[in-house]
Amino acid sequence: MSKEHLKKTDRTNLVRNPSRADYDRDVVNGIIDATSLCHVSYIIDGRPYVTPTLQWREGDTIYWHGSSASRFLRQIVNKEVCISITHFDGIVLARSAFHHSINYRSVMLFGDAHKIEDGDKNQLLEDFVEALIPGRWETLRPMTDQEAKATTVFSMPIDEGSAKVRTGYPVDDDEDYSLPIWAGVLPISQTLHAPKADPKNLAGLEVPKHVRDYSLG
Amino acid sequence: MSKEHLKKTDRTNLVRNPSRADYDRDVVNGIIDATSLCHVSYIIDGRPYVTPTLQWREGDTIYWHGSSASRFLRQIVNKEVCISITHFDGIVLARSAFHHSINYRSVMLFGDAHKIEDGDKNQLLEDFVEALIPGRWETLRPMTDQEAKATTVFSMPIDEGSAKVRTGYPVDDDEDYSLPIWAGVLPISQTLHAPKADPKNLAGLEVPKHVRDYSLG
User: I need a surface site. Which of B39, B65, B121, B171 has the fewest CB within 10 A?
Assistant: First the structure.
């Protein structure tokens, strides 16, 4: 059974003003589940790296994947990582430069990157495709053992970290509200466009329901 | 005068398949300039961190900012960082799970985080607002010295790093093109919505031209 809150630790306190951090697991999960993109940071030979990759969540665990041929992925097994997931929701236009901001939802997670063993990997790769686009797996040419081997899956417990969310209008200095300066928000969202069929599709193939029904977030 | 290409180094080779990396400065700059959001990773006390923040570029230098009150920002002065900027442009639906992918444009940059001294900061903060939304600075209540002091600006030369871009349709195994499986792309883009005026704006203020004219990317 899940704990309802993530742990506050020295690490989470270092990077977040604790008064603005949200440790509620439902808030954190909602931000994770609203996109596939994440940024994973790690240390190799004492130097920092950050790479974008695709993630998905099952319960209190986050998963991400990469190529087994990747030299750097081999070096992060059982090492500490920090994962960030961020949605850019708008530009906040205040009456002073200082109070300009953006609206966003972000999660930062800390933990060790565990490599999934081969026996457990096939089901997770199915879960990954289903997380990316529900309903697709059963329509596909089955995965081969070679393909499963070529993919590395990492997991990390969602245990230590926090969310931070900004919404709404600017917060200006009291005296600035009397100035004749237009303030407000430029909302931004990710938009899905009509599916583009591969020109190499067999003639007569219709867009399947799982593609027609797909929605972001 | 700018060099036309970024440096290939052990670091850039470690994280990118060199055959897929693009070191062309125009490609890198185009990806940086198409958003304000970046992820900066760094090491504190031997542990990895990654935080989302806003960046802007001037020539061959990338800048980002944070609160001077932030404990962690003080710890990255003159330290190595890695910066990632990523655009998620679509989901690539292949005929096999293995060849599923996303379309994206991403840049990874390496270097040391230099803290901008107070004397040089005011002009850069103006540049930052103008990069976020051109034409806005001159409409604002002037910045105070206290506000400039409360903001830390970092710079890093854009010198070591690379871009990686995926566009277009899936690339499937030759024999899979004969399967009756719908393949294609679900395009995704960031969309700007109509400006939302702060309800606390003075009566009669019109949406200014720099807000009406704003476009993403």
Answer: B171
Query: How far is CA A132 from each of CA A210, B44, B74, B97, rounded to the nearest angstrom?
Result: 11, 33, 38, 11
Tell me the C-alpha distance between B188 and B104, whole Å: 10
> How many CB atoms are closer than 10 A to CB B44?
16
Going by C-alpha positions, the residue among A190, A179, A92, A186 that lies closest to residue B211 is A186
Q: What are phi and psi of B33, to 5 degrees?
A: -75, -10
- pLDDT tens for residues A63-94? 999 877 777 788 899 999 999 999 999 999 99
User: Tokens at residue A70, please?
Assistant: 């990747």
pLDDT by residue (tens digit) across B155-179? 999 999 999 999 999 999 999 999 9
The reported pLDDT for the residue numbered B84 is 97
DSSP code, position B119: H
Cβ of A136 under 8 Å from any chain B Cβ? yes
CA atoms within 13 A on the CB side of A87: 23
Cα separation of A111 and A158, whole Å? 8
Q: How confident is the model over B89-98, as pLDDT tens digits? A: 999 999 999 9
**Which of A76, A85, A87, A93 best probes binding to B when mutated, by most B CB atoms within 10 angstroms?**
A93
List domains and CATH numbers for chain A: 10-88+102-168 (2.30.110.10)
Q: Do B189 and A193 touch (CB under 8 A)?
A: yes
C-alpha span between B117 and A5 (Å, rounded) = 40
Cβ neighbours, 10 Å, residue B170: 19
How many Å lie between the alpha carbon of B189 and the closest alpha carbon of chain A?
A: 5
Token pair 């237009």 is found at: A182
pLDDT of residue B19: 65
The confidence score (pLDDT) of residue A16 equals 65
Q: Which residues of chain A have pLDDT under 50?
A: 1
Q: Give the residues across from B63 on adjacent strands.
A: B56, B155
* Beta-bridge partners for A73: none
The pTM for the full model equals 0.94
Q: Are A189 and B190 in contact (CB under 8 A)?
A: yes
CA distance B161 to chain A (A): 11
